[in-house]
Amino acid sequence: MEAIRAADLKSILHSKRANIYYLEHCRVLINGGRVEYVTDTGKKQLYWNIPIANTTSILLGTGTSVTQAAMRELAKAGVLVGFCGGGGTPLFSVNELDVEVAWFAPQSEYRPTEYLQAWVRFWFDDGLRLHAAKQLQAARLQCLHAAWTTRATRESGFEVDGERLTALLRQAGTQIDNAPDVTALLVGEAQLTKSLFKLAVDTVGYGDFTRAKRGSGTDIANRYLDHGNYLAYGLGATATWVLGLPHGLAVLHGKTRRGGLVFDAADLIKDAVILPQAFLSAMRGDDEQQFRRQCIEALTRNEALDFVIDTLKRIALETSRLAAPADNVESRP
C-alpha cells in the first residue's frame, strides 16, 4: 500500500474540528511519527494517539509533560496547548501573573490580518468599544436562548421554563441596550448569570446553591462549572488565534484581565452550554470524565466554535465600518 505523506493531507478548519483534550498523569510525545500520550498501568505503558489535525486545543493538567518534538507537531497543526490544574481548574502558572490557564499558541505569521486591522480600527474609540461589547452580549443572549430550548437539551433532562427564560433574556436585552458604559454591562452580565443559576437549580431540583470563587467551591456543581468553563476558554483562545486577534484587545473584561478577549469570547457560549450541563451531571452523579465528555458533545452539537468565530468576525467588520476614516498621510518614497 502506498504511504500517505503528511504534506498531502488537507488541513481541517478549526471551526470544523471535533476534539478538545484534557490530559493528566501522562506524557505527550512523538511515537512513530505521531503525537501520542503515554499512561502507565502497572509495568505496562499504554500509548494513545492524538489526532492533531482534528483537534482544537489540549489542556494539560496535573502530572503531565510534553516533549519539544510533540510541541513542534502540535504547532504545525495549529493546536493550542494550555497548562492548568487538576480537573481543568486553575494553576499558578509559570509566568508573572496568576492567570486561569497559561496558553501556548502556535507561532504562525500567515494568519489573516483582516480582522486584526478591523478590530484595531475601532478598539481605541471608547464609544465603539462599548458598541462592540453590546453586540457581544446580545449574541450571548441569542446563543443562550437557542441552546437552552433545543430538543436535545430538553431530552437530556434540562427542560427549562420557557416563559421565565424569555422574560430574563428580554430584561437583559433591555439592560444591554440602555447600558451607558462597560461597567453597567458587566453588572448586568453578573445579574443575568445569577438569575440563570437560579433558573437552572429550579429546573433540575438541585436545592441550595451559591456560586463560589474559583477553586473554593465544595459542592460538585461548583467544581463542574470551573472545569467546564475551561473548555469554553479553550474554544475562546482558539477562535481569537484563528482570527489573529491578540488576547489583550478585550471589549468587556480588558480592565481586569490581561487575556480578556478570551474571556469575552468564552462568555458567548459558557452559560449557554456549560452551565446546564454542570447541574445535570451533578444531579446524575457523573464523574469528571463523563461530565467532560458531555460538555464536549454539547459544544460540538451546538457548533460553539463556529458561533464564536462568526460572531467575532461580524463584530470586527461591522464595528470598524463605524470608525471615522483615518487621516490621509502623504506617503514617502
Structure description:
The chain has 333 residues and is of the alpha/beta class. Helix content is 50%, strand content 12%. It has 11 helices and 8 strands. It has helices at residues 68-76, 114-123, 126-148, 151-155, 162-178, 182-204, 220-243, 260-267, 270-284, 288-301, 304-320; strands spanning 19-23, 26-31, 34-41, 44-49, 55-60, 64-66, 80-83, 102-104. The strands form 2 sheets. A 4-stranded mixed sheet has the order 1-5-7-8, sandwiched between helices. A 4-stranded mixed sheet has the order 4-3-2-6. α7 packs across α8 and α9 (270-284) packs antiparallel against α10 (288-301).
What attributes characterize this protein structure?
333 residues; alpha/beta; four-stranded mixed sheet; 8 strands; disordered C terminus
Short description:
By secondary structure, this protein is an alpha/beta fold. The chain is built from eleven helices and eight strands. The strands form two sheets. The protein has a four-stranded mixed beta sheet, sandwiched between helices. A four-stranded mixed beta sheet has the order 4-3-2-6.
Largest sheet: 4 strands, mixed
- Listing every helix as H and every strand as E from the N terminus to the C terminus, the arrangement reads EEEEEEHEEHHHHHHHHHH
Share of helical residues: 40-55%
Strand content: 5-15%
Mean pLDDT: 84
What's the tally of helices?
11
Structural category is: alpha/beta
Q: How would you write the strand order of the largest sheet?
A: 1-5-7-8
Rounded to an integer in angstroms, the radius of gyration calculated over CA atoms is 21 Å
Runs with pLDDT <50, length 5+? 91-99, 327-333
Q: Number of DSSP strands?
A: 8
Distance between the termini: 58 Å
Shape field = globular
